[in-house]
Amino acid sequence: MSREEIFAKLKEILVFADSRYEAAAEACTEATRVREDLGLNSAGMLYVMIAMEETFGRIFDDASVGSFSTIGDIIDWIRERRP
Question: What local confidence, expressed as pLDDT, does residue 83 receive?
Fold first, then answer.
């Protein structure tokens, strides 16, 4: 899956997680900060993480999730762990 495809799926997940993220998802880039710019709290991040696991077939551990600062970090992590 290309970076662009992963990025598009992540934006879909954000909107599906909470419709309040729709505007933020449309405006986000790979440099968008997950917590600061998108406003994801712990519960929101957990929901997004579960959706990412189902969508991308990767299991995220706590250490991985804690290291994600930007959307680009998530894309890199997913691409590095291809099934």
Answer: 62
